[in-house]
């Protein structure tokens, strides 16, 4: 549309307007320039003409010129210096709006020689008698710090900001504290810490601060650690009225602060009383727009994990409406499972059943999973949950396959209790086409092969298409046939040989091949021993949704309303910018890691060193990831003679892997195991799941299978307890000279 | 904080954007186009692409997007986007691609004034209009004296009202608007019901008036022990309420007084919510039977539970039907019913529904036998829309509304009530 010639013509026309002495014409010209700039046209050629318009008393034109300048100054730094004088003059204008505008714009121009001239006027503006100028100057210090921290510090601007925190104008106070908090974030040592006096100042400003200012003050106050219980009570009393604000940011920030303060109140009854006060405002947020509802739900989820009972009377609020958007429905479902109890299970099952009839696939699957999670969570109600699932299969709802997957979990939790439904499930065998459902069904057949008369026929039919199957299904066929062989050797010897041959000949799948070799060796060692190892009693699984480590949960609760609480990840784990600034700290603590692990377990939630804690844990996590990587390398190369398996690798992967691991576990006897089947329940809206840190301590692993019995394979293993998690630390050694 | 605010159209091109920080990738609009716009289905309003995070709000045919790389206060960002839309609306009416394109320099000015370095600043329309007002250019506003007043105002304690307001006739309009939400199971049990109310005020008052609003709120009445038992009987319990920033929250917290200096014009004074003793204006009794795979029979009876002196208007009942519906036969005792294929529902409309009466609809739905016919029908709930003037489902009443101003004028006060359907759903 704009050919070069018309553009030239147009630019010329604008130029004439810019040079016109009449203000109105000038304004028209500048507006046109801004318009073209916004449309992405290059109007840098007009730089000098636009700059000449700066000398005007018309604030409108000034503003527009500044907008232009912010965009183009960095391309024309030499010319930009020419306007510095006008800026400096403007910062001393009689009109406070112009003073503020000049200092605001100057701070936004990131051109070195402009910044050099910024300091002197900034110093004046910070002490301006007009609050509008002061509040603008306060943020300008943060801008300067962002581009040139040394300069900001050497000119004493930090101290100026600290002085402004006790300003008489609430807006100045909120901008000053905000600027300080931002500068703190980029520093190893905070430049400013909120003490009692500042906290009092902030609370006073809070009473009168306009809405955004109030939110910033509340956010800053959550960094304050009260000295004693009485102080925490006093502050919380001042915060409580904010829960009635219309602005959800203020409500959520107040909730965060109140929950934070409740931890310092000695009288438990008072603390509980305080915590319950956040419930009605949070429920009110559910009547808000979807964006806010989503935030509220993500935060409520965290709050329930910490204080499970406070929302127990509000369960109806989380019932899904037919026309709720899917991302809201999934969050509600998560919360409903968290709130499930023997008292409300009937009501909940009714809801889940209703949801299972809906159209959206993701929602239906999650609803079916929710039923099984309740069955696993509530032992007394398991029976009725299972009846609901059976009912769903009979009704032939869409996605029956999901039911098969979740029933596998129920079998693992309650072995040998609900076998009667196997018959019903196997009727659906031919319709199964999803790998996860198939793998689950095959697992059930292998596990209950004694009760299923035609188990070998069923497995044989799967074996026929072995090569076309997905890895998880292949692994499961292998494991199930081994189990079948140990129970009914006569029927399945041939099948077993077939599957071992197929698996070990597999060129491209080391997992499958290695597992087959391991079975092979075990089976060829001693039949009794093999049975003992492979057909051991399965450990039970438990329902612990999400299940954050207490220290992580506390960190997330300190981030209520922030993105961290939406993602359910601590800031360091999802934002690069945070890792960069905190890397130093990590280094510092690295050496202490090994020795302090024990120590770490004992640390209380309210430990002020929590932050440190998390960094360390993450560090460990990295290590364990390395282990996992090694593990993969090993299996690929077959060069190393030692494989370190750590069960928690499981947590980084999806449930399919979980299944494969689960069979590996069969190798170990007399053990308990805790598997996290819940990961996949996490909303898929999150790209990845928060990973629970792993602690490796130095206790020696026990010998489970010696190399003589294992024909060269030696297995060492140890179960460790970390909070509620049981971790299996497994080491498999090849003591022969040959490859596995 | 916020690194950029940007307006993006449906094709994914940037209409206008204001960068507050330089930490975000230059091609961020491209990732937004791929991840959000190309995804068609508008899902979660927060998207992370690598370590850049987008928070957005959709309005007509555009997206207003806040971009950040920091762990920002997400609620604050969404609240700000909401405010930004209302500021823009107050300047140029509806916000859409066209109006954005016609107001570039105004939008820059607003984005510059309402956010500084990514932190939201004063965004109250009344105050902004004092110094961002391109159309009505007034020379005197550039005078230093005026500017000083404006600056004080913009950072002042009452940042939502200017000083020199004058009305020859002082009036105050109060609208109590309730949305009643219902979710009823197919067996007729109320699964959840609540009322979300909002009190909208239109103030046309001179000077700096101090207002006091009294409701039949149980806690407030008990607080003031001198009240008669009669007042106490009609009192209702509110689960929670939230207020416009003009209301003195400290005072409400101490003695439940709602006292405030109102902004000029229309604003939402308060919102409230209650789940106790919700009076449902309509009772719905549905019977929906699937007869084999070929027909569905539906009979829905509706009873108006409110007083015979009142009536409901704009009553719409949507009775969902299966996708493979061929045709429907309906008969109603009042109003008209029509099958709407795109909505997959029979829509029954009644213009005026008198209180304490009962009406019903009989429908026979014939289905096409086809590939889908063996799939079960998901039976979505029946939903309902209505308005009942002069009625509140919560029983809320305004007890008094007082205006104090130093010139001591008498203000004329008007109060209206209306109850609307929020999400009024009955499972079948």
UniProtKB/TrEMBL annotation, chain A:
<dbReference type="GO" id="GO:0012505">
    <property type="term" value="C:endomembrane system"/>
</dbReference>
<dbReference type="InterPro" id="IPR002553">
    <property type="entry name" value="Clathrin/coatomer_adapt-like_N"/>
</dbReference>
<dbReference type="GO" id="GO:0016192">
    <property type="term" value="P:vesicle-mediated transport"/>
</dbReference>
<keyword id="KW-0813">Transport</keyword>
<feature type="compositionally biased region" description="Low complexity">
    <location>
        <begin position="616"/>
        <end position="640"/>
    </location>
</feature>
<dbReference type="InterPro" id="IPR013037">
    <property type="entry name" value="Clathrin_b-adaptin_app_Ig-like"/>
</dbReference>
<comment type="similarity">
    <text>Belongs to the adaptor complexes large subunit family.</text>
</comment>
<dbReference type="InterPro" id="IPR011989">
    <property type="entry name" value="ARM-like"/>
</dbReference>
<dbReference type="GO" id="GO:0006886">
    <property type="term" value="P:intracellular protein transport"/>
</dbReference>
<keyword id="KW-0653">Protein transport</keyword>
<dbReference type="Pfam" id="PF01602">
    <property type="entry name" value="Adaptin_N"/>
</dbReference>
<feature type="domain" description="Clathrin/coatomer adaptor adaptin-like N-terminal">
    <location>
        <begin position="10"/>
        <end position="526"/>
    </location>
</feature>
<dbReference type="InterPro" id="IPR016024">
    <property type="entry name" value="ARM-type_fold"/>
</dbReference>
<feature type="region of interest" description="Disordered">
    <location>
        <begin position="584"/>
        <end position="640"/>
    </location>
</feature>
<dbReference type="GO" id="GO:0030276">
    <property type="term" value="F:clathrin binding"/>
</dbReference>
<dbReference type="InterPro" id="IPR026739">
    <property type="entry name" value="AP_beta"/>
</dbReference>
<protein>
    <recommendedName>
        <fullName>AP complex subunit beta</fullName>
    </recommendedName>
</protein>
<dbReference type="GO" id="GO:0030117">
    <property type="term" value="C:membrane coat"/>
</dbReference>
<feature type="compositionally biased region" description="Acidic residues">
    <location>
        <begin position="585"/>
        <end position="602"/>
    </location>
</feature>
<keyword id="KW-0472">Membrane</keyword>
<dbReference type="InterPro" id="IPR016342">
    <property type="entry name" value="AP_complex_bsu_1_2_4"/>
</dbReference>
UniProtKB/TrEMBL annotation, chain B:
<dbReference type="Pfam" id="PF00928">
    <property type="entry name" value="Adap_comp_sub"/>
</dbReference>
<dbReference type="InterPro" id="IPR050431">
    <property type="entry name" value="Adaptor_comp_med_subunit"/>
</dbReference>
<dbReference type="InterPro" id="IPR018240">
    <property type="entry name" value="Clathrin_mu_CS"/>
</dbReference>
<keyword id="KW-0472">Membrane</keyword>
<dbReference type="InterPro" id="IPR011012">
    <property type="entry name" value="Longin-like_dom_sf"/>
</dbReference>
<dbReference type="GO" id="GO:0005886">
    <property type="term" value="C:plasma membrane"/>
</dbReference>
<dbReference type="InterPro" id="IPR036168">
    <property type="entry name" value="AP2_Mu_C_sf"/>
</dbReference>
<dbReference type="InterPro" id="IPR022775">
    <property type="entry name" value="AP_mu_sigma_su"/>
</dbReference>
<dbReference type="GO" id="GO:0030131">
    <property type="term" value="C:clathrin adaptor complex"/>
</dbReference>
<keyword id="KW-0813">Transport</keyword>
<dbReference type="InterPro" id="IPR001392">
    <property type="entry name" value="Clathrin_mu"/>
</dbReference>
<dbReference type="InterPro" id="IPR043512">
    <property type="entry name" value="Mu2_C"/>
</dbReference>
<dbReference type="GO" id="GO:0006886">
    <property type="term" value="P:intracellular protein transport"/>
</dbReference>
<dbReference type="InterPro" id="IPR043532">
    <property type="entry name" value="AP2_Mu_N"/>
</dbReference>
<keyword id="KW-0254">Endocytosis</keyword>
<dbReference type="GO" id="GO:0006897">
    <property type="term" value="P:endocytosis"/>
</dbReference>
<dbReference type="InterPro" id="IPR028565">
    <property type="entry name" value="MHD"/>
</dbReference>
<dbReference type="GO" id="GO:0005905">
    <property type="term" value="C:clathrin-coated pit"/>
</dbReference>
<keyword id="KW-1003">Cell membrane</keyword>
<protein>
    <submittedName>
        <fullName>Ap-2 complex subunit mu</fullName>
    </submittedName>
</protein>
<keyword id="KW-0168">Coated pit</keyword>
<comment type="similarity">
    <text>Belongs to the adaptor complexes medium subunit family.</text>
</comment>
């Amino acid at each position: 549309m704009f050919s070069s010639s018309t553009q030239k013509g147009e630019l010329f026309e604008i130029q004439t307007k810019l040079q016109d002495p009449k203000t109105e014409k000038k304004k028209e010209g500048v507006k046109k320039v801004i318009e073209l700039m916004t449309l992405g046209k290059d109007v840098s050629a007009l730089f000098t003409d636009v700059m000449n318009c700066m000398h005007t008393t018309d604030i409108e034109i000034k503003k527009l010129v500044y907008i232009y300048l912010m965009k183009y100054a960095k391309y024309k730094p030499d010319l930009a210096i020419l306007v510095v004088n006008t800026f400096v003059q403007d910062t001393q204008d009689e009109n406070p709006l112009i003073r503020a505008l000049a200092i605001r714009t100057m701070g936004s121009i990131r051109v070195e020689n402009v910044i050099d001239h910024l300091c002197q006027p900034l110093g004046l503006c910070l002490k301006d008698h007009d609050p509008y100028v002061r509040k603008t100057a306060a943020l300008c210090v943060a801008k300067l710090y962002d581009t040139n921290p040394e300069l900001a510090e050497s000119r004493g601007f930090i101290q100026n900001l600290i002085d402004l925190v006790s300003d008489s104008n609430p807006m100045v106070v909120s901008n000053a504290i905000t600027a300080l908090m931002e500068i703190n974030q980029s520093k190893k040592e905070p430049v400013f810490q909120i003490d009692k006096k500042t906290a009092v100042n902030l609370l006073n400003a809070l009473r009168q601060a306009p809405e955004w200012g109030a939110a910033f003050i509340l956010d800053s106050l959550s960094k304050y650690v009260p000295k004693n219980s009485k102080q925490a009570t006093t502050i919380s009393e001042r915060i409580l009225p904010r829960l009635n604000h219309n602005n959800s940011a203020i409500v959520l920030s107040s909730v965060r602060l109140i929950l934070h303060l409740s931890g310092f109140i000695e009288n438990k009854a008072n603390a509980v009383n305080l915590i319950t006060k956040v419930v009605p405002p949070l429920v009110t947020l559910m009547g808000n727009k979807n964006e806010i509802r989503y935030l509220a739900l993500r935060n409520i989820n965290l709050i329930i994990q910490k204080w499970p009972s406070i929302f127990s009377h509000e369960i109806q609020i989380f019932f899904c409406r037919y026309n709720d958007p899917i991302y809201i429905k999934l969050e509600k479902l998560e919360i409903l499972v968290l709130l499930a109890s023997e008292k409300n299970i009937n009501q909940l099952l009714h809801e889940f059943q209703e949801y299972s009839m809906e159209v959206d696939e993701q929602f239906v699957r999650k609803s079916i999973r929710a039923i099984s999670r309740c069955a696993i969570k509530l032992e007394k109600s398991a029976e009725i949950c299972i009846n609901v699932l059976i009912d769903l299969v009979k009704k032939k709802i869409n996605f029956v396959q999901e039911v098969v997957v979740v029933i596998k979990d129920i079998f693992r939790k309650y072995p040998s209790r609900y076998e009667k439904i196997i018959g019903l499930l196997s009727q659906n065998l031919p319709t199964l086409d999803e790998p996860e459902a198939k793998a689950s069904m095959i697992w059930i057949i292998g596990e209950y092969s004694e009760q299923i008369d035609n188990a070998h026929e069923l497995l044989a039919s799967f074996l026929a298409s072995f090569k076309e199957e997905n890895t998880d299904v292949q692994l499961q066929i292998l494991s199930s046939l081994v189990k079948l062989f140990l129970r009914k050797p006569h029927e399945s010897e041939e099948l077993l040989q077939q599957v071992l041959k197929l698996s070990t000949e597999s060129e491209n799948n080391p997992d499958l091949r290695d597992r087959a070799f391991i079975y092979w060796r075990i089976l060829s060692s001693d039949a009794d021993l093999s049975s003992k190892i492979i057909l051991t009693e399965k450990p039970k699984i438990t329902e612990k949704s999400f299940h954050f480590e207490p220290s992580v949960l506390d960190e997330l609760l300190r981030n209520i309303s922030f993105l961290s609480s939406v993602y359910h990840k601590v800031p360091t784990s999802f934002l690069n910018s945070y890792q960069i600034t905190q890397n130093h700290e990590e280094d510092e603590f690295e050496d202490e890691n090994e020795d302090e692990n024990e120590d770490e377990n004992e640390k209380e939630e309210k430990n002020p060193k929590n932050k440190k804690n998390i960094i360390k844990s993450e560090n460990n996590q990295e290590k364990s990831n390395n282990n996992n990587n090694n593990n993969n390398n090993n299996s690929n190369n077959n060069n190393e003679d030692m494989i370190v398996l750590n069960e928690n690798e499981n947590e980084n992967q999806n449930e399919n892997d979980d299944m494969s691991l689960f069979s590996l576990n069969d190798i170990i006897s007399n053990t308990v195991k805790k598997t996290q089947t819940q990961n996949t329940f996490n909303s898929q809206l999150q790209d990845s799941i928060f990973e629970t840190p792993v602690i490796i301590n130095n206790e020696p692993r026990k010998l489970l299978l010696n190399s003589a019995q294992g024909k060269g394979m030696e297995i060492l293993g140890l179960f460790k307890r970390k909070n509620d998690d049981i971790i299996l630390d497994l080491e498999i050694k090849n003591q022969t000279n040959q490859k596995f | 904080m916020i690194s950029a605010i940007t307006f993006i159209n449906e094709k994914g091109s940037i209409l206008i954007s204001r960068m507050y920080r330089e930490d975000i990738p230059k091609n961020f609009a491209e990732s937004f186009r791929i991840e959000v716009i190309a995804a068609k289905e508008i899902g979660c309003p927060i998207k992370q692409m690598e370590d850049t995070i987008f928070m957005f709000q959709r309005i007509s045919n555009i997206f207003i997007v806040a971009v950040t790389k920091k762990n920002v206060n997400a609620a604050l960002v969404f609240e700000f986007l909401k405010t930004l839309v209302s500021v823009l609306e107050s300047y140029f009416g509806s916000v859409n691609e066209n109006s954005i394109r016609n107001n570039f320099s105004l939008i820059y000015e607003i984005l510059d004034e309402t956010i500084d370095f990514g932190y939201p600043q004063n965004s109250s329309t009344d105050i902004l209009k004092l110094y961002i007002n391109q159309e009505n250019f007034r020379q005197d506003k550039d005078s230093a004296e005026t500017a000083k007043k404006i600056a004080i105002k913009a950072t002042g304690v009452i940042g939502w009202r200017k000083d020199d307001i004058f009305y020859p006739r002082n009036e105050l309009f109060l609208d109590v608007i309730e949305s009643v939400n219902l979710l009823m199971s197919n067996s007729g049990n109320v699964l959840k019901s609540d009322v979300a109310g909002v009190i909208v005020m239109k103030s046309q008052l001179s000077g700096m008036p101090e207002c006091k609003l009294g409701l039949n709120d149980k806690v407030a009445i008990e607080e003031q022990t001198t009240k008669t038992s009669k007042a106490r009987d009609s009192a209702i319990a509110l689960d929670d309420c939230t207020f416009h920033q003009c209301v003195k929250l400290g005072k409400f917290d101490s003695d439940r007084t709602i006292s405030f200096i109102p902004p000029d014009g229309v604003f939402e004074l308060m919102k409230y919510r209650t789940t106790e003793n919700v009076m449902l204006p309509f009772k719905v009794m549905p019977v929906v039977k699937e007869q084999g795979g070929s027909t569905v029979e539906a009979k829905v009876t509706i009873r108006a539970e409110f007083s015979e002196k009142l009536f409901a208007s704009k009553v719409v009942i949507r009775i969902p039907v299966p996708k493979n519906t061929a045709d429907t036969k309906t008969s109603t005792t009042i109003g008209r019913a029509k099958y709407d294929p795109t909505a997959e529902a029979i829509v029954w409309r009644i213009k005026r529904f008198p209180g304490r009466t009962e009406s019903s609809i009989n429908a026979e739905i014939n289905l096409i036998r086809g590939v889908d016919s063996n799939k079960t029908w998901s039976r979505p709930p029946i939903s309902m829309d209505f308005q009942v003037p002069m009625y509140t489902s919560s029983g809320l009443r305004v007890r008094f509304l007082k205006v104090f101003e130093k010139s001591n004028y008498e203000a004329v006060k008007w109060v209206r009530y209306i109850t609307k359907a929020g999400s009024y759903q009955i499972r079948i």
